[in-house]
Amino acid sequence: MRKQLTLSLENQVGALERLLRVVRHRGYAVKRFDAHLPDDQSCLQVCMEVESDRLAFSLVAQLAKLSEVRSLSMRGEAVSVAH
């Protein structure tokens, strides 16, 4: 099952690596990935499509725990990110 995720990450060294490591550890394969840094260079804007037979809840819950994640949505549904 494919899921589309949209995230806003603080522009910190290693933030993308940590994001992708969580995706891999949760058993998801990245099918599409796009990241860009707006002109103000404050937060990376990431859009990715992932695929797995697993439920998306565990992936979303773990991504929301990353300290760099400022916002997270799955197919347009906002996910609470508390730090």
Walk me through the structure.
The chain is of the alpha+beta class. It has a single domain, classed as ACT domain (Alpha-Beta Plaits, 2-Layer Sandwich). It has helices at residues 15-25, 56-65; strands at 2-10, 29-36, 43-51, 69-74, 77-79. The protein is globular, with a radius of gyration of 12 Å.
What's the topology here?
Blueprint: E1 2-10, H1 15-25, E2 29-36, E3 43-51, H2 56-65, E4 69-74, E5 77-79
Antiparallel strand pairs: 1-3, 1-4, 2-3, 4-5
* Assigned CATH class: Alpha Beta
Q: What is the ordering of alpha helices and beta strands?
A: EHEEHEE
- Report the β-strand fraction as a percent range: 35-45%
- Supply the helix-strand structural class: alpha+beta
Q: What ranges have pLDDT less than 50 throughout 5 or more consecutive residues?
A: none
Distance between the termini: 29 Å
CATH architecture: 2-Layer Sandwich
CATH topology: Alpha-Beta Plaits
User: How many β-strand stretches?
Assistant: 5
Radius of gyration (Å):
12 Å
Question: Major beta sheet, specifics?
Answer: 5 strands, antiparallel
Count of separate structural domains: 1
Q: Fraction of residues in helices?
A: 25-40%
The strand line-up of the biggest sheet is 2-3-1-4-5
Figure out the total of helices.
Answer: 2
The CATH homologous superfamily: ACT domain
Net shape: globular
Determine the mean pLDDT.
Answer: 90
Quick summary of this structure?
The chain is α+β, with helices and mostly antiparallel strands.
List keywords for this structure.
Alpha-Beta Plaits
